[in-house]
Amino acid sequence: MKKQNILFNLDDTLSYCNRYFNLVIDEFADQMMVWFDSISEEDIRQKQLQLDVAAISEHGLKSERFPESFVGTYKYYCDLTDREKKKDEIQYLRELGFKVFEIPVEPIPYMNETLIRLKEEGHELYLHTGGDEANQRRKITQLELTTYFEHRIFISEHKDTTALSDIIKTIKADPKVTWMVGNSLRTDIVPALEMDIHAIYIPAENEWQYNMVEVNVEHSSAFFTVDSLQEVPDVIDKRIQD
Length: 242
Known about the structure:
alpha/beta; 6-stranded parallel β-sheet; elongated
């Protein structure tokens, strides 16, 4: 079997992520409805999402971006309704937003079994995750992912084609035997296909709107969609055999 270079995304590919963000956003929306009873919950959620996504182009996937989307939404509706901005309320929202980064991470089913099998089959495993260093290292430690990836871990605040290209150059990987496995069409799949790297897309249980884009990329590499992480080794094995 020919050794492959396999890059994995972390959030919602190897461990749950969006489910925890959604729980905190639910708390945020409930509190905002108390303060702004004339505003619909849907409008509040859409404004928070708009501010959160808009900040990515400037700040990347830094953790601070998320709590500040709560504060920004609050200030927006204060201005809209002539409500006084209160420091204690702003502090509450900021702390609420940061709470999501304190929740212990939970592995996606078959995470360990999948990584063990690929490692035992002789493939080189890499982790390419988006976010800030401290938060992603916390998750990596809790999940004991260095067992599989050792020092082959890359954390990008701006996770895009440029970041992936830099990684491929660093590890001197041949695109023909290199894969990207992830749940984000925007930050995992499109960059891989633009680099002519094989891609395996695993849709998340709850997908963040930012990750959803059209895949209109000309490529000569393979592109597969699977339902679960445990299917990945078989897909790669079949491609090698073919």
